[in-house]
């Protein structure tokens, strides 16, 4: 996105920075702010992102944390509006969005944007993997003013009449040790042809990728709905451009 806009991206990981030698985020953020016009941070720990934002004097973009993935969700909303040919939030409110699987940074951000925009959003997940109470309560604070219809359930049948079915991998970063356990627990929440029979006839399927075919989504569904899934991937580029133009 930066290159296409004429900017110069600089990729820095822990190995390229003095962070690996013990430099604080406070110092790193201040120094990078003197060199750059903006920072996009991808970090497992959300608290690291917040600390960068606290001490940086340039814009800080959340590229992904274990808590949120807002840039992805902006691309998701763009994709839904594009494929359903809606141009207003009011029209978007009539679309039933269902997420099935692990409550993670994707579902947290979907929950947040649905609450803020007043959307119809259902999150289907095993009870022990439901959103954390603090995340849910923060989202619910908006519903009275926006009219959002938020439902948290463990019943896969609540995908009935879904206009959008969204899923993500069952084992996110940091939970690799639970992979075998998660495969068993999440099996009933797979996006497959049987689940799509419950959805509306015009339903689209979304996945933020990369997908593990045969786990959270079947090969058949992945191929059948590749247009919506890969349009979603493409739209990430356009959303990043929009964010950069807005901030810089």
From TrEMBL:
The lineage of its organism: Bacteria, Pseudomonadati, Elusimicrobiota, Endomicrobiia, Endomicrobiales. This is Ornithine carbamoyltransferase. Residues 93-247 form the Aspartate/ornithine carbamoyltransferase Asp/Orn-binding domain. Keywords: Transferase. It comes from the Bacteria. One of its GO terms (molecular function) is ornithine carbamoyltransferase activity. It holds the Pfam family OTCace. It is an enzyme of class 2 (transferase). The keyword Transferase applies. One of its GO terms (biological process) is citrulline biosynthetic process. Residues 1-82 form the Aspartate/ornithine carbamoyltransferase carbamoyl-P binding domain. Belongs to the aspartate/ornithine carbamoyltransferase superfamily. OTCase family. SUPFAM superfamilies: Aspartate/ornithine carbamoyltransferase (SSF53671). InterPro entries: Asp/Orn_carbamoyltranf_P-bd, Asp/Orn_carbamoylTrfase, Asp/Orn_carbamoylTrfase_sf, Asp_carbamoyltransf_Asp/Orn-bd, Orn/put_carbamltrans.
């Amino acid at each position: 996105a930066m290159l296409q806009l004429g900017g110069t991206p600089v990729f820095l990981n822990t190995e390229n920075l003095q962070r690996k030698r013990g430099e604080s985020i406070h110092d790193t953020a201040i120094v990078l702010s003197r060199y750059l016009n903006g920072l996009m941070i991808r970090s497992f720990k959300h608290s690291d992102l917040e600390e960068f934002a606290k001490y940086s004097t340039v814009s800080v973009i959340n590229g992904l944390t274990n808590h949120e993935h807002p840039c992805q969700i902006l691309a998701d909303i763009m994709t839904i509006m594009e494929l359903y040919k809606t141009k207003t939030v009011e029209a978007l409110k009539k679309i039933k969005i269902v997420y099935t699987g692990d409550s993670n940074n994707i579902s947290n951000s979907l929950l947040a944007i649905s609450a803020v925009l007043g959307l119809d959003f259902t999150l289907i997940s095993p009870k022990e993997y439901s959103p954390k109470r603090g995340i849910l309560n923060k989202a619910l604070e908006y519903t009275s003013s926006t009219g959002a219809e938020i439902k948290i359930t463990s019943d896969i049948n609540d995908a009935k009449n879904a206009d959008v079915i969204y899923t993500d991998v069952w084992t996110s970063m940091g939970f690799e040790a639970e992979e075998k356990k998660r495969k068993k627990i999440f099996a009933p929440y797979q996006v497959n042809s049987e689940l799509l029979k419950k959805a509306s006839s015009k339903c689209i399927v979304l996945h933020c990728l990369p997908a593990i075919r045969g786990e959270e989504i079947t090969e058949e569904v992945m191929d059948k709905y590749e247009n919506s899934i890969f349009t979603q991937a493409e739209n990430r580029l356009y959303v990043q451009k929009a964010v950069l133009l807005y901030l810089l």
